[in-house]
Amino acid sequence: MDTISNSAEAVAEQAAGRLARQITAEREARGWTQATLAGRAGVSKAAVSRIERGEMSPTAVTLLRLAGAFDLTLAGLLLRAEGGAGEREHERLSRAAQQPGWRDPDTGYARRQLFAAPTHPLEAVQVTLPAGASVTLPASSYAHIQQLVWVQSGELRLTERRAPDLTWDLAAGDCLGFGAPCDVTFENPAEQPCTYAVFVARR
């Protein structure tokens, strides 16, 4: 068990290192300072510095804000970090073994990229949200995309943070199309994990 655990931790550390290097590369390619990126993303300069040095794993919200600042979807940023964007440019098949995953260190929100390709307008993601967990994703992450959420198992409470808030209670099989961009809270109110798929169309 220790060997398996240590191996999983090593893989996670390597993935975090690749992501940190990609964020630095994206920033430097644009000629931005860390302060510039922080201002565009709406996060602190200290957080950007710690993330780039690998001292802090970004949460889902922070990662979405950074991706948005680069004018990338989260999938685009993660795929670049995995080194797969160029390799997959002409591929239409996404093998299960090649689908990259990522886990939010704060909430346990786990994301698996089912499909994404630079030449295709659609993306597909599978998310598992632990029991009782919630995450609020910023409006900026929806600025250039449209989404559908399809609940595969468990219960999902989705709240669109507008005036007034609009809350949807979704069960397995339910599918919801997003409205205009706004902050959105994904919450699992049940005692079991919730798994849902997100289908993304780039505008």
Automatic annotation (TrEMBL):
Cellular component terms per the entry's GO annotation: cytosol
Protein's UniProt keywords contain DNA-binding: yes
UniProt keyword annotations, A-Z: DNA-binding
GO molecular function: DNA binding; DNA-binding transcription factor activity
UniProt keyword Mitochondrion, yes or no: no
InterPro entries reported for this sequence: Cro/C1-type_HTH, Lambda_DNA-bd_dom_sf, RmlC-like_jellyroll, RmlC_Cupin_sf, TransReg_Diox_bact_type
Domain HTH cro/C1-type residues, every copy: 23-77
Source taxon at top rank: Bacteria
UniProt-recorded name of the protein: XRE family transcriptional regulator
